[in-house]
Request: fold
Amino acid sequence: MALSRRRLLAIASLTVASSVANDSRGAGAPIKAIAFDGFPIFDPRPIFALAENLFPGRGAELSKVWRTKLFEYTWLRTMSGHYRDFLGVIDDALVFACRSLDIELTGVKRSALVEGYLGMTIWPDALPALSMLKDNGLRLAFLSNFSPAMLDANIRAAGLEGIFEFQLSTDAVRAYKPDPRAYQMGVDAFGLKREEVLFAAFAGWDASGAKLFGYPTFWVNRQKQPREQLDAVPDGEGLGMADLVHFLSS
Reply:
């Protein structure tokens, strides 16, 4: 899909540097829609900053264990057939992380950290890129582990009402990504072929999972992580949303 000269100039004004690392999409089917994970749009860093404020000198360590255990629990719950919504898993992982690090977690601090996931800010480059993509005719959706309540709350807090055609939560299929049932929601909602829906991932494992499912995939690699060794290379990769727009214009 060609972007106008004005749009291309607007891309250059975004605050992130373009660093597209790979484009193997070639002359495949045209992209008609984009399904986003939550975290290319919503910025979790203030939650981890809050952890440091609440537990001085321990916040970074706590956040690392918390994040790791959070996704371990989503995978274990999917494999074992014992689904729990994402906010509940966030809470469970926080309790585990504090216990494993011998950090005292009061009810007030627990609520503050978990509820941080209900009012996240958006990355500075997100809204300009989303506006460009939507203005150029692409259909947009969230395809996220976030519960419906999390999606609704964060979209309202960020002022993103009307941007996304669908808010697809894994609650609908009771299986977290990278389970194929989760990715299938995008195909079913848009009514398109897999190759017509680009998946925009935040985590490397999610980029691999979406690619293995059959989506053309762009990895918004804000954390500058190495690629997962899972026999699935994303079609495009960059540090932010400007790179995604550039990828689609090339």
Observations:
- Residues 1-27 have pLDDT under 50 and may be disordered.
- Residues 69 and 156 are 28 Å apart (CA to CA).
- The radius of gyration is 18 Å.
- Residues 5-42+121-249 form a domain with the Rossmann fold fold (CATH 3.40.50.1000).
